[in-house]
């Protein structure tokens, strides 16, 4: 998907708009953004795209120097500083328009066969920027493009999304259905285009607790969108609550999953109007486009409260209740504190804001479990930006009891923090061994506590790999061979329990390094696991074209296959690594390099792998 952007904001405070743009880019995961650099809003969109690791193609009407001089004269030093900072970014490319060429022409050329969505920021005033935005929207619609228009300020109405999250198994067919792809690429852009202030009913995903504040949202939100994909008890419960308390504006959506055939809504709501759209097990950009076009008018009707849609509300004759429905004072205050804290934690994405939010939690007046859950979430955010020591400090203060839904999340995140610390340059051998030992003990505890799944065994295999690195023994040493065998056993255990591209690619690595003999049995297993790993990685990319880990897996798979030849040609793997690195964050690049350096030490072709690493360093 390619996002074309343009427009201008007519408000001085753009913090809300910036948050919406950041969230939209994060959920859509476009391959590239194409747009101008004229207005503050356009500069902001380009900056948020770069922060998200996306390629940005900035289109200007003149040469760089002439454009910069003209805009500096009109907008001053602040614009110039921002422009110069953006042009220093490695993922931004400046494109000068040729005579007769338009922004949409450039975007079409850059997109090729990919879908193009236009995201505009529309000011309230009609002239002059408002007219330019309307003209851009009209020309995009003439080309058949989907258009999303964000007002700089949201409406006052609130929306709530009720749906299953993550991957859920279909009760009838057993097929795995990715629910988040519809949330990310249909519901989020749909709600942003409508300028609604929205949230999603998945607080239980973060805390393991269904909070009364969620019930207040169900009762009081202007619109509740309910996704009926899969048989999900949480969704059924939340829909029932909404129908009791609200006469109108409950929008039922039952996606038609093509591979599963025609399905009818559950009997209990068969008489209610359920809106549908076609999607596959893997949602394509084309299907997302058509879904938004189909559901847009339905959402506007729901916002207008044009139709009563709750049989339960009519039955209980609750039209006389006063709105909004209020919680008991003590509960309301506690839940308001938690909701505010949850929003602050979700918005904390940078090092300074994460630490500030963690300190703020100490005085937020939350309960123990709520504080633990939010500190774990902040610690996970610190892991994502390589602040491993700071993450451990938060995890040390947030250990839940065994049996708490957050316990496994805490335990495995803590293991990952110790693992990453052991990989850092500058740590002493003693510190490295201490980090590895602590992580190993936690993994043993995870199995004792009942968490012996693919994720746990995958992390365990990685810890054994770090032990091999720390030992520094030659490949021929019996202890090295013993550790390689143990590593393969852990990855195989994880792959057998729940096959994934992560355990698959690491099992292939372990097999190659612990099996000096290349007999028929080895080749059969290597081929079988390689095919399954490729399947899982390609499936992940169909769900999310920006999945860097899946791209790195395909690159490493090509590398392993090439290294099985007597004279390996690494041109193909190098190209795949470079493609993945273009959108990878520093942690992902460091992880890929660590894997390659491990191979260089223990594989039979260190010279070729050294050349590959040098090629990647020149990217």
Automatic annotation (TrEMBL):
<protein>
    <recommendedName>
        <fullName>DUF4071 domain-containing protein</fullName>
    </recommendedName>
</protein>
<dbReference type="Pfam" id="PF20308">
    <property type="entry name" value="TPR-S"/>
</dbReference>
<dbReference type="InterPro" id="IPR046880">
    <property type="entry name" value="TPR-S"/>
</dbReference>
